[in-house]
Amino acid sequence: MAKYVWEGKNRGGAKVSGEMDAPHEEFVLAYMRREHIAPVSIKKKAMDINIGFNFGEKKVSHKELAIFTRQFATMIDAGLPLVQCLDILSSQQDNATFKKILGKVKEDVEGGSTFADALGKHPKVFDALFVNLVAAGEVGGILDTILSRLAEHIEKAMKLAKRIKGAMVYPATIVGVAVVVTVVLLVYVIPIFAEMFTDFGGELPVATKFVMKLSEAMRKYFLAIVIGIFAVGAIFKWYISQEGGRKNWDRLLLKLPVVGPLIQRIAVARFSRTLGTMISSGVPILESMDIVSRTAGNKVVEEAIMKARGSISEGKTIAEPLMESAVFPPMVTQMVAVGEATGALDVMLNKIADFYDDEVDAAVDALTALLEPMLMVFLGVVIGGLVIAMYLPIFKLAGVVGG
């Protein structure tokens, strides 16, 4: 998140300026358009050096945001004034950070700001999708309906994320335990065997020699190995933070067996759900596509969506560039084309999202089922291989004594 300083002219031609925390320049530009301010300049403010640490600040979770949105929708539907809703929901928040933010939103609304603009000042909690949908709800007088759709959207996104994370817990735990056990064997157990074999003398099997050399290297260069792992991680993180690196990595992920189709299905479900929600809420299609592209989570998918956006701005359809991208399956592009032709694009997109939510569940189940035998093989080869390599000389010695 960066701080931007903007300048512009209002409807009366007077100069106005301000500062805003935003994820990118387009977010500031969208805010200025909503306020009917003609932009003169938008500049990123230089970062202040801050030695302090915000250990006390707690992040606002998706669950807290979903509960807030659902409760807000219920209260607005019941006819409570906006400021009163904010006051009630702020007072009952356990999260001090969220409570403080809601207090600021309430103050801005009382000061004459629209609800959407007040939310837009806190992009870490309320993203572009949330703010734009609220703005559409305020203009159309259907804020309660919009908030209900938002709550449903957040809840479904949470369910999907929880499903994927839950599937990854078991393999990650097994791999973590295997790494710890392997390190303990190499650093503490194998040196004992190595000393014993050295005292016995004689020629050792090749596998045993290899494991003993590996153990010696691990003990001798342990710190260098740890630093090397962190260095590789830091280089990889830097690489994917670059535009080209991120695109190459995302393209590679889409081509991976099993994992690739899962990522594709997640991207299609997210695209369909978000775009369907925005169109049905009255957000202009070009603005919707711009926001949806930034929530895609994959650079290749993002480029395909932005290409479709360019196609729309030229008076063409959405379906054609999506079909050419090869990212979106034929069924999706055909359903989008039918939705465009019949004027029911939002309905069709929601149907696609429902279908691909089920597809993601099936893909996660398939991935989990495939990972279990692969993990067993991994454990057998790594840990079993170490144990067998160290017992080979004992078997050989026992054979000689028995002979």
Give the CA-CA distance, first to last residue: 74 Å
- In percent terms, what proportion of residues is strand? 5-15%
Q: What kind of sheet is the major sheet?
A: 3 strands, antiparallel
List the helices and strands in order. Answer: EEHEHHHHHHHHHHHHHHH
Question: Radius of gyration in whole Å, from Cα?
Answer: 28 Å
Count of separate DSSP helical elements: 16
Number of strands: 3
Overall pLDDT level: 81
Overall form: elongated
Task: List the SSEs and their pairings.
Blueprint: E1 2-9, E2 15-22, H1 25-34, E3 38-44, H2 62-77, H3 82-91, H4 96-110, H5 115-120, H6 128-140, H7 143-200, H8 206-220, H9 222-241, H10 243-255, H11 259-280, H12 285-294, H13 299-313, H14 319-325, H15 330-342, H16 345-402
Antiparallel strand pairs: 1-2, 1-3
Helix pairs in contact: 2-3, 2-7, 3-4, 6-7, 7-8, 7-11, 7-16, 8-16, 10-11, 11-12, 11-16, 12-13, 13-14, 14-15, 15-16
